[in-house]
Task: inverse folding
């Protein structure tokens, strides 16, 4: 067998049928990677830095000579690791072994070396031309596609994420921005969530989610997405995509204040006081010194209803302000009146109005 090389478009079409192996260093992989890829580093972070310095200060040949002993010592471990991944992927021994799709940063020496080794061992190996750099260019291109969005809006505590999840269960196309960002969008949005991804990893995950939804609906059916600020915690929605969202029709669900307050209390009342106080301090400048102090005192005393009444009123005002911000792209609003925070009933309301 010989190692086959394919373009990024072919890679996107084929790679889900096999296993993707990223041979870049652990530091490169941890910063961001193709979402489904395994990391099989040819060199450690320190080894990569040493070889890179040798390449720049001496020559390509000198760098290869410096890397060969390091590679030689790792060959057996690499083969055994790939065997383990493939065994996990195979449902039974009779079926064909999955293809190994391999890449490094630019599709150069690192991926070529590991591809040679795995091909020699007997696996079907495909190398990505242009490597991870080509994948990143593909990712960025996904944010320029004119998707057919319908946007779900509403004040804080309306259960928008839960409505989207219900719509997804009812076979609608959905992109969960907050789920991909690991953040619920407010100063309190990181509480109870996993660590946020890097901006680059957020973009990688978002691009894949968009591609999967667009591939399924063949660019014809609409995709539901939540109305968000461009910043979600520490990550940003790419500007072209954000402008498209803001220029799409928004179905704005309005639910009484007390119903939303009860929903917020149920969701956030279970978290520790220190986390809630720290989050409150993050909005101190906008909330105001007196309101911040009062809200924190309520949290300390366990009077969560009183604390979240102050905070929810603040977020309602902040949402209104952003809705009338002249610097943001305009969004068409279709109002939906709902009696309570009930994801199923409210999803059905949206379906009836949309149809």
Result:
């Amino acid at each position: 067998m010989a190692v086959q090389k394919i373009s990024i478009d072919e890679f996107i079409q084929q790679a889900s049928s096999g296993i993707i192996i990223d041979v870049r260093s652990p530091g490169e992989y941890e910063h961001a990677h193709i979402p489904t890829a395994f990391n099989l580093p040819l060199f450690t972070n320190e080894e990569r830095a040493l070889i890179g310095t040798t390449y720049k200060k001496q020559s390509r040949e000198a760098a290869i000579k410096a890397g060969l002993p390091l590679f030689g010592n790792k060959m057996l471990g690499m083969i055994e690791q790939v065997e383990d991944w493939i065994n996990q992927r195979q449902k039974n021994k009779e079926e064909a072994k999955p293809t190994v799709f391999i890449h490094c940063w630019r599709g150069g020496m690192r991926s070529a070396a590991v591809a040679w080794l795995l091909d020699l061992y007997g696996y079907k190996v495909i190398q990505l031309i242009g490597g991870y750099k080509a994948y990143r260019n593909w990712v960025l291109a996904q944010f320029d596609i004119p998707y057919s969005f319908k946007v779900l809006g509403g004040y804080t505590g309306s259960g928008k994420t839960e409505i989207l999840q219900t719509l997804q269960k009812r076979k609608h196309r959905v992109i969960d921005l907050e789920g991909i960002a690991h953040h619920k969008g407010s100063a309190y949005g990181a509480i109870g969530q996993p660590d946020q991804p890097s901006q680059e990893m957020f973009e990688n995950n978002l691009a894949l989610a968009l591609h999967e939804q667009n591939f399924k609906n063949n660019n014809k059916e609409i995709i539901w997405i939540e109305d968000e600020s461009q910043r979600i915690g520490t990550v940003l929605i790419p500007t072209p995509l954000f402008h498209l969202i803001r220029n799409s029709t928004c179905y704005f669900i309005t639910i009484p204040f007390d119903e939303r307050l009860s929903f917020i209390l149920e969701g956030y009342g279970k978290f520790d006081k220190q986390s809630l106080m720290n989050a409150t301090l993050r909005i101190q400048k906008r909330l105001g010194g007196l309101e911040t102090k009062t809200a924190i005192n309520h949290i300390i005393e366990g009077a969560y209803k009183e604390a979240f009444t102050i905070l929810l009123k603040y977020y309602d005002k902040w949402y209104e302000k952003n809705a009338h911000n002249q610097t943001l792209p305009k969004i068409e609003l279709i109002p939906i009146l709902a009696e309570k925070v009930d994801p199923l009933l409210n999803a059905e309301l949206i379906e009836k109005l949309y149809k």
